[in-house]
Structures are given as C-alpha cells and as structure tokens.
Amino acid sequence: MAQYTRVSGSVGLITLQSPPVNALSAAVRQGIVDLMQRALSEPEVKSVVICGQNGIFCGGADIKEFGGQMSGPPLIPMIHAIEAASKPVVAAIEGIALGGGLELALGCHYRIAHSKARVGLPEVTLGLLPGAGGSQRLPRLIGVPAALDLITTGRHVTAAEALKFGLVDQITDHNTVNVAVKFAQRVADQPLDARRISTYPCLCPSDVAVLFEEVMQRVRRTARGAIAPIACVQAVRAAATLPYNQGMERERELMATLFTSGQARALQYFFFAQRAVGRWSMPSGARWDTSKPRPVHKAAVIGLGTMGRGITVALAQAGFSVVAVETQEKQLMEAKQKISGMLERGAKRRGVAPALDKINYGRNIQSVADADLVIEAVFEDMALKKKVFQQLSAVCKPSTFLCSNTSGLDIDQLACQTRNPELVVGMHFFAPAHVMKLLEVVYGPKSSPLAVATAMQLGKKIGKVSVAVGNCRGFVGNRMLKPYLEQALFLLEEGATPEFVDQVLEEFGFAMGVFRMSDLSGLDVGWKVRMADGLAMPDPTTGQPTRLRQGRRYSPLGDLLCEQGRFGQKTGRGWYQYDKPGSQVAKPDPWLHSFLDEYRARHALVAHRIDHQEVLERCLYSMINEGFRILEDGIAAGPEDIDVIYVFGYSWPRHRGGPMFYAATVGLNKVLERLEHYYQAHPDVPSLQPCHLLRKLVASGSPPIQKWREVIKKVRSQL
Ligand code: NAI
Q: Start and end of every 3-hydroxyacyl-CoA dehydrogenase C-terminal domain (predicted)?
C-alpha cells in the first residue's frame, strides 16, 4: 500500500507502506500507480517525492510473490511511467533501496539519500538479475565497470560510495524526506529530458570488449556453476551494445530463463532457510521466542591457537571486551602478534580503528573470573578439555556461560565437570573463525534455553549465522562429513584418483574437492582423532592395516599417508604434491598413484572404471542419508538447519540450496533407489543403508521440503 499527502503546497508525497521493508507487493505497486496518476493530475502539484515509511525506502520485490500467479500492475511499465512523468520525481532514500527498490529509484529523476542508507542490486544472490530495467539503467548512469561490479556481486554500497559513483545526487545527515521535498520544490520547473536515465547513452571504456571478456572469465571462475552472475554480465553487455529498448528485451529474455531455473528456486529457498534457523527450537519445546538471552559484556577465550585467535578477533571487532588466555608464554606472544595483525588488517579494510584495546591477555585461567561467557578452544582432547572445564567452574562467577569450540566431542561430558551444567553449550566456529559465517550452537541434555538463547544472540552480534543443534559426535556438519570422506576414500581404493574425485566435486560446485580440502586442513587432524578412537592401528595379529573394523569397511589410506609424514599442504605432500611446505598449488603426485596401485594389489582390489555419476552419488547421497538420520534423531530441527550449515560451513554451492534441498530436487525416490543399489553392492558400509526417515518420506509421496517437518514429527514420535 502507499499513502499520499500534499506537502509544502506543491509537492505530492507518496509514502510506501508495507512493513517491514516496504517491499513492492502487488498492493504497493497498485498504490504507486494510482498515486502517481493523482499527483500528475493535480494542477497544484509541481513535483513528486517517493519515500518509504519507518525510515526504509524499499527492500525490493516481494519475494513471497515469486512462483505464484502475478497480480497487480507489473513493475517495468510502472517504473517507465515514473520516468516518463511530466513532473520531476525525487526518490528520498532512507535505510535501504535494494533490488526493485533501487530500480524504482533509478526510474525517478533525482535520488537523495540519507548518509546511513545502503543501496544495491542483490538479485544475483537470489539467482536472478535486476529485471525491472536495473541492468539497463545502472550502466547508463554509473558506467559499465561499476555497474558490472554491483550487479554481478549483488553487494550493497553505502550512500557515500553511491554518491561517488553518481548513483545518488545528494546525501544528507538530516531528515531525508524534508531535504527531498525542498529539493523537489527547487527543481519543479527544471526540464526533465536530461534526467531520464533510459535515454542516456551507455558510456563504455574504449576496450569494452576486453573488459567484458575479462569479467566473464572471472565470473565463470567464481560462480562455481551458478548461472545468474553470467546472465548479469550478458544483460550489462546488452546495455553497453544495444539501444535501450533492445537491451530491455534482452533483459526480459535472460530474466525469463533465470526465473524458471532450478537455481533461482534453490536460492530463494535458501533465503528463507537462513531466516528459519533464527527461529530455533529444542526437543524440550524451548524456543527462540520464549527464551530470553542474558546480555554478555565481557567474554573470554581459552587457548589462542588457530581457532582461539579468530574467535578473539571476531569478539573484539564486534565491540566485546575479551580476556584471551594462553598458558604457554611463547604461544601467547605469537598469538598477540597474530591477533593484532588480524585486527589491524580488518580495521584497514573497514576504515575503522583497530579494536586492540578491547583485549586483555593473560597466562592464568584466574583472569577470566569475571567474564560473562567463556569460549574454550584448547586442543581437541577430552581429558584436557574436562580439566579446563573443572578449572573454569571453580574460578568463574556462578552465572558464567561456559562454551566449548570442540569440533565434535560430547558437550554433556564437559557440562558434567561444572557446578552449573545448564550453562554449558558448544559454540562450534569454523576456520578462519573471524571470517567464516557459520556457528553451530550445540545444546546438550542439560543445556538451558537461557544458555542457548545467549549463545545464539552472541553469534548474531558477531555477525555469524548461528544454528542450534543437538549433541552427538560431530554435531551436524562434521557428522555428515564423515560418510562423505569415507566414500571418497573407498572410491580411491576401487580405482579413482584424488584429482578425478575432486574434479567431479568441484564441477558440482564445491569450492574445493574433498582431497584438496583435506590437504588444506591437515591430514594429521583426523588421524589423531582416529588414533584416539583406536581406529588407526594395524591389525594386532598380522601387523597389516585392516580394512574391516567392527564388521564395517574401513579405509586406512589416510592413516598410511600420515605414517609417511604426508600431512597435506603444511608438509608439502598429502593427496597431492606441492612445490614446498605451505604452498597452495596442488599437483597430481605420481608417487601417490603408484602407492594406490600397490595398495590395491596388496589387498587384491580390482580397480574398476568410476564415472562422474558414481562419485557424486556415493559421496553426496551417503552424506544426505546421514542428514536424514540427523533429522530423525532430532539433532537438527529441520532440513533448513542442515542446508544453512552446509552452505556456510562446508562451501556447499548455494545455488543448489544445500544437501537436503538438493535431495528434494533430485527426487527422494531416486536418492533412495541409488542408496539401495550401492548398499547392496557394499553391504559392509552402513552409511549407504537408506535410513527410516528417507523411506518414510518416499512412502508419503515425497512431499515438498517445506512439509518434511510433519513427517519428521511422526517418525520421531514413533521412536
Ligand atoms: P591449536 O592447536 O591451533 O590451538 C590450541 C591452543 O590451545 C594452543 O595454542 C595451546 O597452547 C592452547 N592450550 C592448550 N592447553 C591450554 C590450556 N590449558 N589453557 C590455555 N591454552 C591452552 O588448535 P585449534 O585448531 O585452534 O583447535 C582448538 C579447538 O577448536 C579444538 O577443540 C578443535 O577441535 C576446534 N576446532 C578446530 C577447527 C580447525 O579448523 N582448526 C575448526 C573448528 C573447531
């Protein structure tokens, strides 16, 4: 909806009214069309201002209308009518002008923005392009290079940056609507011909063909299979090379292709999934809207290795006072230096002062006594962690929340070491912790809703996407990773090479294939865990590595590499070879190929031809099957939680929506049928056995993913 008022005698003020972000719903579009007509027909009105209520101009198209039957006036003719109006129209941009909101503003003759406003065309993040003339007007207004940057990345820019680009005409610190009204009065008699962006020539640099080629190559490299960024480049190329009307036709064609693509559906699903994870719930019935967090003023981090440093930086950058503790003097000095460097680089990028003074360093655990919340990030060793939790429980205030950054150990065992187990949760960050968006907040059987709510809120304050999950080995992300890694190793045993498996996974859209990723993280990390679990030992009778553990197939390949000192990038050798330790350029290693041949010969394994389909199905479907088990066990509340974890923590390609959404798009019956096929071929691999929930969903007619929770509830109630 929109409201009309006449202000200062001669200005028609149209206020968009559709909380929370004044999205361009059918009713809002109808309001704009009607009120523009009214303003143009009133003789006293000499100019028009369009603004949004509650300090927000417009958040863009109403995404809830996507996929439904289109009703109300379409956006493109509405924006054309504004641009063609005989009276000047000024956009008063407060808060945000995003997507369709910015396209509306580009149809206006002038744009005045508040200094704190942000503008952008984020359609690409939803698998679309700015399809209401944005791809054609923006390059005409700010030039091809800047428009390509904004449209292909979807990034939001500040008002100051928008002014620099010439995207807005003026910025103000005062009441934007008042400033826009005065401005509208001033320009009431000015000719409008030179203000209609669609009539501008598209100014191109002389080497425009080279520019487009370069941008297209870069976009293809980084898109990881997403088609929208490529369509965005094509649309801007149309603006640069075709007359406006033909450019609009190209924009329409490209948009039609994107709109019906599975990728747009996946990205729109993912948009809502990110919101859904904020509405967390626990099996006890505790929920986000009934559990109040407690404010955290002072936080502490114990252990300043890779993770502790990143966590300290994330907290300090968000304005928290942090006590950072490391027991070894040498490690403490090194951590101080690294943390200061990270803060300084971050501050330089963001144009702010580094938050160095937010951190107090110490070597004694006593120094965290008055912290409101402590995050432990010492080595992944249960005995050590238990000791640290006992110490924390003795020195901290009784009200202090005690959190562990463990990547998969039992939170309940840690809680049992403390006086107040209800205040213990897992806060599982991902490396590098000041960069990666994901945070798994892990509740144990004793964790209180207060502790979960507080950790979730802290996560939000430090800019993380926090997902509340239950307590089990590996939680959600690492638990699902296990069968995926396991299948990749089995594929090597059966004839594949690391580079082939990685190539298939990277073509699917992962930033890195499983073996390149293992080389980056360090093969020794998993090896230590397997040794602690008693897995990475040779058979006591033969002294040979065993391929069967407790009746299950086991691949000792990773252990054998570690025994050779091949820990990945850090040692210059792993699944690949590197020029020198620390180098990131992975090259196929002939040594490894012969090693695999010998291994197969030793174990009488006959290599067979493994194709793309087998790699994808075995790696992904076994992981998805574990995802269904996680849902069945109540470790994740819904498929959205799993999908958000995988996209933000494990580089799952966002345009495929996440593993559970992908399963739905492939078809649950197909996933079930292929798992059955592989399980029959490998009966000693339990992760390939289709789980009960997957069978139940297929038996229920494979409902859409939004309806899975109903089936999950039934399955859980029967357990
Ligand atoms: P790290 O080995 O880099 O650092 C551990 C640090 O803890 C060392 O600096 C050590 O001196 C210090 N430390 C040991 N005992 C201590 C004590 N009693 N008091 C204070 N400091 C102590 O290990 P990293 O990689 O940072 O891992 C830490 C935790 O985070 C582990 O539980 C790990 O599983 C988890 N994690 C690691 C991820 C990774 O990618 N490295 C990702 C997510 C979680």
A: 474-578, 615-702
Question: Exposed, middle or buried, 718 (CB in 10 Å: 0-12/13-18/19+)?
Answer: exposed
* CA-nearest residue, atom 10 of ligand 1: 303
- Give the start-to-end residue ranges of the domains of the chain: 2-260, 298-471, 496-603, 612-718
* Identical fold, 496-603 and 612-718: yes
CATH number of 612-718: 1.10.1040.10
Which residue in this structure is represented by tokens 């299950």?
552
Decide: 303 in ligand 1 pocket, CB within 6 A: yes
Ligand 1 atom nearest residue 376's Cα: 29
Q: Which fold has domain 298-471?
A: Rossmann fold (3.40.50)
Mutate to test the pocket of ligand 1, among 301, 304, 306, 365 (most ligand atoms within 8 A of CB): 306
**Assigned CATH class of 496-603:** mainly alpha
Positive/negative CA dihedral, 496, 502, 504, 508: positive
Whether 65 sits among the annotated catalytic residues: the reply is: no
Beta strand spans in 548-608 (E):
548-549, 552-553
Q: Which tokens is 469 given?
A: 């999950």
pLDDT in tens, 55-104: 999 999 988 787 677 789 999 999 999 999 999 999 999 999 999 999 99
Rounded to whole angstroms, the Cα distance separating 654 from 399 reads: 39
pLDDT for res 159: 97
Catalytic residue among 83, 123, 326, 376: 123
Strand 118-120 versus strand 170-172 pairing type: unpaired
**Own/partner long-range contacts of 158-163 (Cβ < 8 Å, ≥24 apart):** 158/117, 158/118, 159/93, 159/113, 159/114, 159/115, 159/116, 159/117, 159/118, 159/119, 160/115, 162/113, 162/117, 162/119, 163/113
Q: Is domain 2-260 annotated with CATH 3.90.226.10?
A: yes
Give the type of residue at 222.
Answer: T
* pLDDT of 49 over the 90 cut: yes
